[in-house]
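User:
Hi there, any thoughts?
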Amino acid sequence: MELESLKYAWKTLDTLSATQKKRMDLQQQERQLLALLHKRSHGPVARIRRNLVLELAGVIALYTPPIAYYLFHFGGRLSAISWFVLAMAALFGIYYYRMSRILGEMQCPAFQVRSNLERQVRSLEKYIRAYLVMGTLLIPVAACLLGVLLYWELPPPIHPGVLYVSAGNPLWRVLLLWATGLSTIAATMYFINKWYIHTLYGRHIDSLREALREISAG
């Protein structure tokens, strides 16, 4: 009787379906991934979250003074600057919320399976790219807003400079100066923001990608 039971057990193990074997392999890979993440990737996730909180504190500290200043000075003629800065702060708040939620899920063991982590890393990269575009365009757009307010809301200076149209400074020269200056600022900000974002987030996301590649190759 025991011999028959042993034969039956051996036959059952030998005839496992390919789906069952594949499921066992996936479970083993996920266990390995969990171990690798706890060993190497929890640090990068935690550092991304810490840098995100530091950025939030920096945005609050930097944006609050100009919002208050332009809202209550100049007789309200430059209040558009305050609303613009407030809109930028609100966009960063949305960015912070989305990033924080993704990072919170990545630190939850229930979500740490490979498919979820790959999706979350892709989401992080998407928000980082959007952040790079926003950071690059922020100063040129703000400069355009300031230019409009400079011409329309404030009286012209007694001695107009190169930013004003005058007898010796035609309109085409003013527009060329603005276009050249804004293009230079945008290009400079792109490389500065690219380095800045990679330092805060990109290198840690690369570590997560490397962990996923290692477990997939293994």
In short: Residues 18-72 form the longest helix (55 residues).
